[in-house]
Amino acid sequence: MTEDMDNAESRLVRIERLLESGERELAPAWQRATRGEPRWAVTAVILVAVALQLMLPHRLSLPPYWALPVLELVLLAGLTAANPRRVEPRTRRLRWLGLALICVISLANGLSAVRLVAELVNGRAGADAVPLLLTGGGIWLTNVIVFALWYWEWDRGGPMARALGREQFADFLFVQMQSPEVAAPDWEPAFLDYLYLSFTNSTAFSPTDVIPLSRWAKMLMMLQSSVSLVTVVLVVARAVNILK
């Protein structure tokens, strides 16, 4: 009798384990614990942002003009050394280091944008349309990168939290989340998806196929659209006026 009960209990345990494993397999990748995403994409885009900042006119940067870009490279080197291949959850300090890096990039580009707008409003932006367009384009593109980093870092607690699969309620609703049959079973949002979101929001000035769900996501997208609109309108208007 005891042996039969033991066999029944062992069978129940095996059935429960099979059911649990089946539930994990049925859950999409973005809702369960997975490996951290590769770091190369975000590293490459940050290097592009640093290069764009160094190419801006020095009068638009905080003196010395190289200080903030160098600080960004130091912070990026620290993050890369800690997680060279993948953005994996290790310590909370790494997330704070990543947030500090994004803050520095935001500060540098925000300062350049404010100074450029002030020059445009006061008529001190120069009499050559080509450098003006290049400068405005560089600030606009860096702005796209900056907001992509913020979206990537805050959606469901950031890339490290997403790798753990703890936050089930998304801040951004991607098409693959609504229609999982159009994507691979292991699909989950990565940095390039947030870069696309940032680019389309800066060009269309509104959501396209990625929908913000949380209030902070809506406010951040509204801020990005406003900054992009002001930059594009002022720079293009001044350049057209010069060409005339």
Secondary-structure map with pairings?
Blueprint: H1 2-26, H2 40-55, H3 67-82, H4 92-122, H5 129-154, H6 159-164, E1 172-173, H7 175-178, H8 191-204, E2 211-212, H9 215-243
Antiparallel strand pairs: 1-2
Helix pairs in contact: 2-3, 2-5, 3-4, 4-5, 4-9, 5-8, 5-9, 8-9
Describe the 3D structure.
With 244 residues, this protein is mainly α. Helix content is 68%, strand content 2%. The chain is built from 9 helices and 2 strands. It has a two-stranded antiparallel ribbon. Helix 2 packs antiparallel against helix 3, helix 4 (92-122) runs antiparallel to helix 5 (129-154) and helix 4 packs parallel to helix 9 (215-243). The model has no long low-confidence stretch (mean pLDDT 86).
In short:
With 244 residues, this protein is mainly α. It has helices spanning 2-26, 40-55, 67-82, 92-122, 129-154, 159-164, 175-178, 191-204, 215-243; strands at residues 172-173, 211-212. Strands 1-2 form a two-stranded antiparallel ribbon.
